[in-house]
C-alpha cells in the first residue's frame, strides 16, 4: 500500500436525519491492487461502495469533511452530471445480483452495446466488434450469447455479462459488490480467477465487497474489516486473515471453524416420513405450440423425515432447485410420484390442495424477488398470519420472529430496499417460520450472508428444527455449510442423483467424482 492511491477515501461519514451509517472511515487503494471490504451484514460495506459511486439512497447524505479523492482529484459527489461522466467510464461496477441488474427485455449483446455507446463509441461496426471482444475476454466466446436474453443463460454467464458491461468503459477502478455470493462453488472460483486475470491484465484497482473470507483471501492484496459503520482494521490480506488484531476481526476469522465442526446431533430414530419422491422426473414445457419438453430431473428416489435435514449439493443447472420445487408441490411430476404429508401427487393428479400448502414453506435464494417492494416488513410478515386467522396476534408474533432471526423488531417499519441483502433474507426466513411448517425447503438461504451470520442462521434453523420437528431440505453450494446442517446429503449432476450418503461419509474414498469435484472447489490465493 505504498503506491500513490488511485482511490483515497478520507473521513467518509454518511448519515440519515437520525442515525449515522458510516463513521468517518478512511482507506486507500493503489493502482493494480485489490482491497477486500469484509464485515457482517449491515456493517456498511455496500453503503461504502454506493458512496464512492455517488449513489446514496434518498434520505441519506454525506457528512461534513467527507472527501473521496480519485486519481488525485476530489470526486464531484454533489454534481450528478460530473459523477455520471465517471460511472461506467473510469469507474466500473458489478453488483451482487445480475438477474436484477440486467434488463429482462433486452438481449445480452444489446445491453453491452448500450454500455459501449454510453462510453462514447459511436460507430456501430466498432461496437459489434467490441461486444464480441468483451465477451471473449470474460470467457464467453459463444457467438449465440449476444442474441440471448438474461433468463436464457446461467447465473455464472449472467455475472460474466455484468463484468463485460463494467469493462466497456475501460475503467481504472472496478467496484465489485458480492459478485459471487449467489453462485455455486465451482462457478464462483471461475469468476474469482477471471477477475484476478482481468485486473492483472488491465492493471485496475478493485474494491471487492464480500462476506466470504476465502474469497477475500484468494483475490485481495489488502483487507479492511467493517463493523457497525466503523473500519476497525486494515492491512495486508495474509496478516488480517491469519493474525487479526481487533476482537471483531478475530471473531470473523474464527467463524468458519464452527462449520468445520460437526453440527448438533438430534435423536430422530423412527422419525416419520413427511415427504417422499419415487421415480420422480420433472419436465419444463417446450417453447411454442409443438416444442418438446425438457427433462430437468431424472428418476429420483429421496425422502424427507421429521426432524432431519436432507442436503442437496450440485453445480448450477444440476437440478437442485427443480427437485426442491417438486418436493413442495410447486413443480408437477412428469413421471413417478411425490408423497407430501397425506397426499400423493402424480402426473394425473399433480396439484396440492390448498389446505396442505401452509405446512410446507419455501425460503427462496433471492430475497429481492421474494419480498414485495411496496410492503413494509410488518405487512410482509403479517400477511401469512392474517391468512391463518391469527391477525390479532400479529404484532407480538412478528416481534418474536424478527428477534429469532437476529433482527431488531424496529425494522418492521422499513421497506425491503431499506434493508441489507442479509437482513432481507432473514425476513424471508422469519416469514416461513411464522407458519409453523412441517416441511421447510431452503434454497441457498445463507449464500448472501456473511460467515458469522451464516453460523447464526444455521444454528437457528437447527435449533428450531429440534424444537418443532420439521423436516428440512437444504440446497447449498458451500459444501461446508451443507455438511454442517445436514444429516444426509445427495449430489445432483445433469438432473440425476449421482451420490447419496450420510454426512459422516462425505470424505469417504468411494464418493462419486462429482462429489470429489465439489470438495475440491476452493478459491486459490491471488499472486
Overall description:
The chain has 527 residues and is of the alpha/beta class. Helices cover 35% and strands 24% of the residues. It is built from 18 helices and 21 strands. A six-stranded mixed sheet has the order 7-8-9-3-10-11, with helices on both faces. The protein has a six-stranded mixed sheet with strand order 17-18-19-14-20-21, sandwiched between helices. Strands 1, 2, 4, 5 and 6 form a five-stranded antiparallel sheet that branches. The longest helix has 18 residues. The radius of gyration is 24 Å and the shape is globular. The two termini are 15 Å apart.
Gap from first CA to last CA: 15 Å
How would you describe the shape?
Answer: globular
| Estimated structural class | alpha/beta
Helix content: 25-40%
Largest sheet: 6 strands, mixed
Topology:
Elements: E1 7-15, E2 20-29, E3 34-39, H1 45-53, E4 61-62, E5 67-70, E6 73-74, H2 80-86, E7 91-94, H3 98-101, H4 108-118, H5 124-137, H6 155-167, E8 173-177, H7 185-202, E9 205-209, H8 213-219, E10 222-227, E11 230-236, H9 237-242, H10 247-260, E12 273-284, E13 294-305, E14 309-314, H11 320-327, E15 335-340, E16 343-345, E17 360-363, H12 367-370, H13 377-387, H14 394-404, H15 421-433, E18 439-443, H16 451-468, E19 471-475, H17 479-485, E20 488-493, E21 496-502, H18 513-520
Parallel strand pairs: 3-9, 3-10, 7-8, 8-9, 14-19, 14-20, 17-18, 18-19
Antiparallel strand pairs: 1-2, 1-4, 1-5, 5-6, 10-11, 12-13, 12-15, 15-16, 20-21
Helix pairs in contact: 4-5, 4-6, 5-6, 6-7, 14-15
Amino acid at each position: 500500500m505504498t503506491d500513490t492511491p488511485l482511490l483515497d477515501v478520507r473521513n467518509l461519514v454518511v448519515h440519515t436525519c437520525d442515525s449515522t451509517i458510516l463513521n468517518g472511515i478512511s482507506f486507500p487503494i493503489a493502482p493494480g491492487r485489490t482491497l477486500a471490504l469484509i464485515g457482517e451484514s449491515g456493517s456498511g460495506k455496500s453503503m461504502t461502495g454506493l458512496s464512492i459511486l455517488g449513489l446514496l439512497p434518498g434520505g441519506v447524505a454525506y457528512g461534513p469533511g467527507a472527501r473521496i479523492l480519485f486519481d488525485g482529484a476530489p470526486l464531484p459527489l454533489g454534481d450528478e452530471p460530473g459523477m455520471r461522466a465517471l460511472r461506467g467510464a473510469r469507474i466500473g461496477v458489478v453488483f451482487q445480483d445480475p438477474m436484477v441488474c440486467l434488463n429482462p427485455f433486452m438481449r445480452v449483446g444489446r445491453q453491452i452495446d448500450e454500455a459501449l455507446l454510453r462510453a462514447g463509441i459511436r460507430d456501430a461496426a466498432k461496437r459489434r466488434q467490441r461486444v464480441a471482444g468483451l465477451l471473449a475476454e470474460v470467457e464467453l466466446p459463444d457467438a449465440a450469447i449476444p442474441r440471448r436474453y438474461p433468463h436464457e443463460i446461467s447465473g455464472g454467464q449472467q455475472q460474466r455479462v455484468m463484468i463485460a458491461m463494467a469493462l466497456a468503459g475501460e475503467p481504472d477502478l472496478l467496484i465489485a459488490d458480492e459478485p459471487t455470493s449467489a453462485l455455486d462453488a465451482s462457478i464462483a472460483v471461475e469468476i474469482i480467477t477471471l477477475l484476478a486475470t482481468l485486473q492483472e491484465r488491465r492493471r485496475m484497482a478493485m474494491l471487492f465487497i464480500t462476506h466470504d473470507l476465502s474469497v477475500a483471501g484468494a483475490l485481495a492484496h489488502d483487507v479492511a474489516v467493517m463493523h457497525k459503520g466503523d473500519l476497525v482494521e486494515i492491512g495486508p490480506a495474509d496478516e488480517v486473515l491469519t493474525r487479526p488484531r481487533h476482537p471483531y476481526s478475530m471473531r470473523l476469522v474464527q467463524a468458519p471453524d464452527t462449520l468445520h465442526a460437526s453440527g448438533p446431533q438430534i435423536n430422530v430414530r423412527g422419525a416419520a416420513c413427511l415427504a417422499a419422491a419415487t421415480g420422480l422426473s420433472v419436465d419444463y414445457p417446450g417453447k411454442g405450440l409443438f416444442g418438446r419438453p425438457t427433462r430437468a430431473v431424472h428418476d429420483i428416489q429421496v425422502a424427507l423425515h421429521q426432524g432431519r435435514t436432507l442436503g442437496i449439493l450440485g453445480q448450477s443447472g444440476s437440478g437442485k432447485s427443480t427437485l426442491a420445487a417438486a418436493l413442495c408441490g410447486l413443480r408437477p411430476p412428469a413421471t413417478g410420484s411425490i408423497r407430501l404429508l397425506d397426499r400423493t401427487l402424480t402426473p394425473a393428479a399433480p396439484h396440492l390442495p390448498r389446505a396442505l400448502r401452509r405446512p410446507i414453506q419455501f425460503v427462496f435464494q433471492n430475497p429481492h424477488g421474494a419480498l414485495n417492494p411496496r410492503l413494509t416488513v410488518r405487512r410482509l410478515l403479517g400477511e401469512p398470519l392474517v391468512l391463518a386467522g391469527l391477525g390479532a396476534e400479529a404484532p407480538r408474533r412478528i416481534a418474536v420472529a424478527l428477534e429469532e432471526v437476529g433482527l431488531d423488531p424496529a425494522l418492521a417499519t422499513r421497506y425491503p430496499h431499506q434493508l441489507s441483502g442479509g437482513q432481507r433474507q432473514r425476513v424471508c426466513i422469519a416469514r416461513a417460520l411464522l407458519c409453523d411448517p412441517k416441511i421447510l425447503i431452503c434454497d441457498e438461504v445463507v449464500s448472501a450472508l456473511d460467515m458469522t451470520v451464516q453460523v447464526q442462521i444455521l444454528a437457528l434453523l437447527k435449533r428450531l428444527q429440534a424444537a418443532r420437528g420439521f423436516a428440512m431440505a437444504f440446497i447449498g453450494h458451500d459444501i461446508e455449510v451443507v455438511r454442517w446442517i445436514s444429516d444426509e446429503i445427495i449430489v445432483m449432476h445433469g438432473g440425476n442423483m449421482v451420490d447419496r450418503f450420510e454426512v459422516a461419509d462425505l470424505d469417504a474414498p468411494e464418493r462419486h467424482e462429482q462429489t470429489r469435484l465439489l470438495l475440491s472447489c476452493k478459491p486459490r490465493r491471488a499472486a
